[in-house]
Amino acid sequence: MRCTDESLQLYAITDRRWLAGKTLYSQVEEALKGGATFIQLREKDLDEETFRREAVALKELCGKYGVPFVLDDNVKLAKEIDADGVHVGQSDMEAGEVVRLLGEDKIIGVSASTVEDAVLAEKRGASYLGVGAVFPTGTKDDASGVSMETLREICQAVHIPVVAIGGITGENLGQLRGSGIAGISVISAIFAQPDVRKATEELKKKTEEMLS
C-alpha cells in the first residue's frame, strides 16, 4: 500500500489507555468506520507475543478498509508480519537503515521537529514526516514544541507529505490552515472519546475543511 497525501489526511495512533473495557480491535474498527485514513499501532508496554497478535489482527482489519497500517518503532516485527511500514523517531533507527531492512516499497515515517531533521530524513528515504508537537500534548512526555513557522518551513523544504502531530483537537486544528501539511495525526482526539466513530467523523470533516 502506498503513502499518499489523501491517505495521511486523518492519521490515527492507537493508545490502549482509553479502552474502557473495549478491545483495541473494536476501537480501531470504529475509527476506520468514522473515516480514519491511516493507522499506526503504538505499544510501549505489551509483551512481544501479544503485540504480534494485535498487529496481525489490525493489519488484516486495515487491509479490509484499504487503509495503510504501520507499526511504531518495531522494524523487526513490521518485516515479520509484512506491515505496510513503520514509523521511527529521531532516537530510533535512521530511515536509510529502515529502508534497507524493509525494502523500498514500504512506508517509512520519520518524526522531525527541525528543517534539518526533515531534509535529512527525506534524503535517507522517508515516505512522510510526522512533525510536532504543534500544540501542547499530554500523550508524549518527550515531545518538544514546534512553532507554526517551523512547520511551514519544513513543509516548504521537503517534497514528501508532512503530518502535524501533538495536542491536535477539533477546536484548534483550524490554526493549521495554510501550513502546507497533508493531514493531522491524533491519539486522544479519537481514542479518548466516548464515541470513537462519531469523534472520527467530526474530526475528518473539520480536517477536510482545514485542508481545502
Automatic annotation (TrEMBL):
Pathway: Cofactor biosynthesis; thiamine diphosphate biosynthesis; thiamine phosphate from 4-amino-2-methyl-5-diphosphomethylpyrimidine and 4-methyl-5-(2-phosphoethyl)-thiazole: step 1/1
GO biological process, one term: thiamine biosynthetic process
GO MF entry, a single one: thiamine-phosphate diphosphorylase activity
Cofactor details (free text): Binds 1 Mg(2+) ion per subunit.
InterPro entries: Aldolase_TIM, ThiamineP_synth_sf, ThiamineP_synth_TenI, TMP_synthase
Positions of the Thiamine phosphate synthase/TenI domain: 10-190
Reaction equations catalysed: 2-[(2R,5Z)-2-carboxy-4-methylthiazol-5(2H)-ylidene]ethyl phosphate + 4-amino-2-methyl-5-(diphosphooxymethyl)pyrimidine + 2 H(+) = thiamine phosphate + CO2 + diphosphate; 4-methyl-5-(2-phosphooxyethyl)-thiazole + 4-amino-2-methyl-5-(diphosphooxymethyl)pyrimidine + H(+) = thiamine phosphate + diphosphate; 2-(2-carboxy-4-methylthiazol-5-yl)ethyl phosphate + 4-amino-2-methyl-5-(diphosphooxymethyl)pyrimidine + 2 H(+) = thiamine phosphate + CO2 + diphosphate
Residues that coordinate or bind 2-[(2R,5Z)-2-carboxy-4-methylthiazol-5(2H)-ylidene]ethyl phosphate: T137, G138, T139, G167, I187, S188
Pfam families: TMP-TENI (PF02581)
Top-rank lineage group of the source organism: Bacteria
Enzyme class per UniProt: transferase
UniProt binding sites for 4-amino-2-methyl-5-(diphosphooxymethyl)pyrimidine: Q40, L41, R42, E43, K44, D72, S111, K140
Keywords annotated in UniProt: Magnesium, Metal-binding, Thiamine biosynthesis, Transferase
Classification via PANTHER family: THIAMINE-PHOSPHATE PYROPHOSPHORYLASE (PTHR20857), THIAMINE-PHOSPHATE SYNTHASE (PTHR20857:SF15)
Functional summary from the UniProt entry: Condenses 4-methyl-5-(beta-hydroxyethyl)thiazole monophosphate (THZ-P) and 2-methyl-4-amino-5-hydroxymethyl pyrimidine pyrophosphate (HMP-PP) to form thiamine monophosphate (TMP).
Annotated HAMAP family: TMP_synthase (MF_00097)
UniProt similarity note: Belongs to the thiamine-phosphate synthase family.
Protein name as it appears in the record: Thiamine-phosphate synthase
Organism for this UniProt entry: Eubacterium cellulosolvens (strain ATCC 43171 / JCM 9499 / 6)
Lineage of source species: Bacteria, Bacillati, Bacillota, Clostridia, Eubacteriales
